Amino acid sequence: MKKYLAILLIIVLSSCKSKAVLAEGSASNLLTAEKIIENHYNNKTDFSTLYIKASARYQDDKQTQNVQAEIKIKKDEKILVSIRVLGFTMAKALITPTSVQYYEKIGNKYFEGDYTGLSNWLGTDLDFQKVQNMFLGKAMDDLHKGKYAVSIMEKFYKLGGNSDAKTDKSFFFEGENFLLKRQEINQVQQERTLQVAYPDYKKYDQMILPLSLAIDAKQKDGKTNIDIEYKNSTFNEDLSFPYSVPEGYERIYIDKN
């Protein structure tokens, strides 16, 4: 169950016919956190819907698998993801601001619930906006609401220090367009980390999108790597979002404690 659910939650973006790959700059002069945050959010995300095809490589301590995905996004409202192997739909998820629904054909299982159990399972607080931001190359957290220390690390601007006793978060930005290069969540006591890296970006008429994502998640019982490559996308079309659990599937529950 974890394999397909992880892929479904992470694959949501792709690319369309593109303009040139964006040049990226190195961080040089130390800027204020407010200026970095302002520049980051100045990158527009001007779309109403996205239709996307993508490919992904999933790897954990036991297996490796390549899959294809079809993704439909209605901005700020819902995300529908279908995972296919050899042309056959193996899993599907519908994500909205209030719920997460999911089923997979291997094992005939399905899940319906809110973000509470899912957040506990993944080790970080999630909501719809954070999930959408992650796939758009935006910081998962609303940076306007935090207080951050600024430093230059690995030629990137690093925002860090907005953490509680259990969780440490860091965000890294390049110096030309202030695009997010990496975001990290570390929970030392739980021996749990999540890193999402964005190797490169392209500029489209509607927005700037990552070309790929590299997700690394580590917990005490193992690690998971998911690499996403973007294929074809179209913007602002009328899309349908069909989702229904096949008959006879068994409902599963994620512990909220």
Written overview of the protein:
It is a single chain. This protein has 257 residues and is mainly beta. It is 14% helix and 42% strand. The protein has helices at 2-10, 33-41, 115-122, 128-136, and strands at 49-60, 64-74, 78-85, 88-95, 100-104, 109-113, 149-153, 156-160, 168-173, 180-187, 192-197, 201-203, 208-210, 212-219, 222-235, 250-251. The strands form two sheets. A 14-stranded mixed sheet has the order 7-8-9-10-11-14-15-1-2-3-4-5-6-16, covered by helices on one side. A two-stranded antiparallel ribbon has the order 12-13. The model is unreliable at 12-19 (pLDDT under 50).
List the helices and strands and how they pair.
Layout: H1 2-10, H2 33-41, E1 49-60, E2 64-74, E3 78-85, E4 88-95, E5 100-104, E6 109-113, H3 115-122, H4 128-136, E7 149-153, E8 156-160, E9 168-173, E10 180-187, E11 192-197, E12 201-203, E13 208-210, E14 212-219, E15 222-235, E16 250-251
Parallel strand pairs: 6-16
Antiparallel strand pairs: 1-2, 1-15, 2-3, 3-4, 4-5, 5-6, 7-8, 8-9, 9-10, 10-11, 11-14, 12-13, 14-15
Compressed to H and E, one letter per element, the order equals HHEEEEEEHHEEEEEEEEEE
Strand order of the largest sheet: 7-8-9-10-11-14-15-1-2-3-4-5-6-16
Q: How many strand segments?
A: 16
| Share of residues in strands | 35-45%
Oligomeric state, counting identical vs distinct chains = single chain
> Radius of gyration in whole Å, from Cα?
18 Å
**Unreliable segments (pLDDT under 50, ≥5 consecutive)?**
12-19
Question: How confident overall, as mean pLDDT?
Answer: 84
Number of helices: 4
Specify the overall morphology. globular
